[in-house]
Amino acid sequence: MLIARVDGEATATICHPSLRGRRLALCQPVDPAGADDGPVVLAVDTYNAARGQRVLLTTDGKSIRDRVDDPRSPIRYFVLGIVDDAEVTA
């Protein structure tokens, strides 16, 4: 799992059947301090997170395929929730 910031959304005119009608968010992974941490990823977002909100992403393939009800779905990232607040402890 990772925390990311929603930077926008994507529209696909042709996509895998498991993604039809689903919102695709462009998510920038961030480190605990909020700085960018890696490349932007595409995630299925059922929570309609707004641009700039932090979200929790999962990369668990089985969990994602279960959520989209397709065992052959190619999606890699899925928004599990919106992060209201986070505290970093050592």
Give short descriptive properties of this protein.
five-stranded mixed β-barrel, single chain, mainly beta, 90 residues, globular
Care to describe what's here?
This protein has 90 residues and is mainly β. The chain is built from 1 helix and 5 strands; from the N terminus they run E-E-E-E-H-E. It has one helix at residues 61-67, and strands at 2-10, 24-29, 41-44, 54-58, 77-82.
Secondary-structure blueprint of this entry?
Layout: E1 2-10, E2 24-29, E3 41-44, E4 54-58, H1 61-67, E5 77-82
Parallel strand pairs: 3-5
Antiparallel strand pairs: 1-2, 1-4, 2-3, 4-5
The strand order across the widest sheet is 1-2-3-5-4
Count the E strands: 5
Shape: globular
On the 0 to 100 scale, the average pLDDT is 91
Poorly predicted ranges: none
What's this model, at a glance?
The protein is mainly beta. Helix content is 8%, strand content 33%. It has one helix and five strands, in the order E-E-E-E-H-E.
